[in-house]
Amino acid sequence: MSEPLLKVEHLKKYFPIKGGVFQRTVGYVKAVEDVTLELNKGETFGLVGESGCGKSTAGRTILRLYEKTDGIVRFKGKDVFALKKSELRRMRQNMQIVFQDPYSSLNPRMTVGGIIGEPLLEHGLCTRDEQRGKVLEIMERCGLLASHIDRYPHEFSGGQRQRIGIARALAMGPEFIVCDEPVSALDVSIQAQIINLLSDLQKELQLSFLFISHDLSVVRHISHRIGVMYLGALIETANKDELYDNPVHPYTRALLSAVPIPDPTVKRNRIILPGDLPSPVNPPAGCKFHTRCPSCREICKTKEPPTITLGDGHTVVCHFAREFSK
């Protein structure tokens, strides 16, 4: 079997908390506690969970937009955090990101042509004479008109701006793109257009996506495999059909019970979780989910659960995974 394009092992990212007169470090926000995943060429890995669970931080740390606290990230076999500045600059061509907010992620003082074309010149991928032609080609691929090239971001709708963001990410011909909630700020009809665009680009260019979202129906539509995050850690990973047909972790079951069914005659048993998400500054002992888990037992409160493999790439971090599995 070929080596995965991206391999992440036990990734951690802590942010220091400063306090006192001398601004000493008095604690840490444990944003990403334990993330292990693999991504193959041409595949989409969906990352889901509540707001504040560390999804976006994990994606940005994988790209080394944040420096890691611990763990390993390998892209095409190379340790991303061991690269020197010049080597990382070259690798950046292969690793890009589409941000959540299409309004604040684009420079309002640059034209569309400048936003998409700047990376091409910066990385020496074309001459200034070739730039406009290449930009027009990328714009057409992303569903933008040639007449848009000299216009500014404020002249576009949210969906068009997100297309510009996708075009900017595609400019350098990457193999891997982190999509950080790329449709959450858009209307539902526009969401479908952007999702279909990403799917078409993936088939055409053999792209690999880490697709971060809190919308489980969107994730199921675009992903091949899905990982569920809770309080900075991946707690369940499986192929999309396996995860939706056989959710094992109590948290995954609760998330899926909230997905709307487009049929008013079908009633779904909602699982309402008690309490709030614990603070990542001081996470609970034992299983991180035990404070809200409807199936909590004494062992969950004191002992950290193991990662149990149920077969066919389905892994669950739970003491009773085999008992809960169908």
Short description:
The chain has 326 residues and is α/β, with parallel strands linked by helices.
Report on the structure:
This protein has 326 residues and is α/β, with parallel strands linked by helices. The protein contains eleven helices and twelve strands. It has helices at residues 55-62, 85-92, 112-122, 128-141, 158-170, 188-205, 216-222, 240-245, 250-257, 298-302, 321-324, and strands at 6-19, 24-39, 44-48, 70-75, 78-79, 95-98, 176-180, 208-212, 225-230, 233-239, 307-311, 314-317. An eight-stranded mixed beta sheet has the order 6-7-8-3-9-10-12-11, sandwiched between helices. Strands 2-1-4-5 form a four-stranded antiparallel beta sheet. Helix 3 packs across helix 4 (128-141), helix 3 runs parallel beside helix 5 (158-170) and helix 5 packs parallel to helix 6 (188-205). It is globular, with a radius of gyration of 21 Å.
Task: Categorize the overall geometry.
Answer: globular
* End-to-end Cα distance: 29 Å
Q: Structural class from helices and strands?
A: alpha/beta
Strand order of the largest sheet: 6-7-8-3-9-10-12-11
Q: Summarize the main sheet.
A: 8 strands, mixed
Mean pLDDT: 92
- Provide the β-strand percentage band: 15-25%
- How many beta-strand segments? 12
* Count of discrete alpha- or pi-helical segments spanning 4 or more residues: 11
The proportion of residues forming helix, as a percent range, comes to: 25-40%
Strand-and-helix sequence, N→C?
EEEHEEHEHHHEHEHEEHHHEEH
> Stretches where pLDDT falls below 50 for ≥5 residues?
none
Nearest-angstrom radius of gyration? Answer: 21 Å
